[in-house]
Specification:
The chain is mainly alpha-helical. The chain is built from 24 helices and no strands. It is globular. The chain starts with a helix and ends with a helix. About 35% of the residues are buried.
Amino acid sequence: MRNSILSIVKTVIIISVLVVSEVADGQPVLDYLLQAKAFNASGQPEQSVRILTEALDKQKDNRLLLERAEAFILKGDYSEAIADYNEANNLSDKSGEFGLAKVYALKSDAATSLYHLEINMKTDHKRSEKEIMLDPAFSRIENKPEWRQFWKKDWYSVPEEKISEIEFYTSNGKIEEASAALNELKKSYQGSAITEYAESLVDISAGRFTAAVKILSGLLTSEPDNEKYLRSLALAQERLGNSAGASQTYSKLLSLDVADANIITLRAECYRKTGETDKAIADIDKYLSLYPADRKALSLAGKLNASSGDNLKALKYFSENLKNNPNDPQCYIDRANSYLSARSWDWAVKDYTMALDLEPGNSDVWLNKGIALLNSGKTEDACFDFRKSFSLGNKKATDYISRHCIK
């Protein structure tokens, strides 16, 4: 009995240590990574280095080192980047090799770059050919003979090449080509995980969302933390209308420390659709703390606050979006809709008018502008707008015309 109690105590202590190690001073690794990526994206690598150094002083994590190395590259400090990639290798075997290949490519050292790229190709950290070819770092060496010689070797298996081909086709809506590539893959690799994943991609592209969910759910039983499977599953769930399931899948991705802030906005949209407004607002506020000028996020924040009854806060977000995007008709429409809900008819008319100056063929805006005019007592002007909306194909305008414009 005493030994059992001691065993339980030891287990609790170990778990507590792990939690402290993961959270450090209360801020998870994921938050540091998201903040650093936001600083890097906004051209502030110095700030990225600062917060990542702060995090690394509390806990050593190869992901923090890899992101700090990226910040050092943006600063042009290649020596510090190399040091971080090497330290990342020490913490997680060969995790920094791709980064080292990039740095030496930037230094125009093709031989050393390709030495590290070859190591990367033989590890679990292997990057796709598309990712390598599109990385601007390698443009420094792509015309060198060593680079051409390197790519004469078959670095990718047939299934890897086929899945890359299918990903390209499905992302570009080329369903027939994707299906043909899938059939080729099935001839030799029927029943393999990579073939099933490929089939799920084709199913999503072709609108067979239920079939895709079934395949991906099966794949995740053996690989529950597979990022590609989870991303595809969330997409299929959303397309199927299962916003609750998609939000859970996005939560799973975030729990795995996938440092992609877009996942937060995707989950926020799912929460909006399931009526979990408070959760959606919390997500979008977190995203805006990283990317305060993002147009889609500001729009969603405004809509969420409007639906929660805080129209003043909604207007603040919409006005901020307009300040950043004065030539975007949707930004005027968002604010006009908020004014319409608040029964501020004249303000709504002004914003709808601005939207129509930029996008005169929007039948919904003509209709809403007509509604605002009608409520402000300008029936004749409203009828002009209703008829314009109807002429653009909006059948909803018919009822307003029959009730208010036919004497």
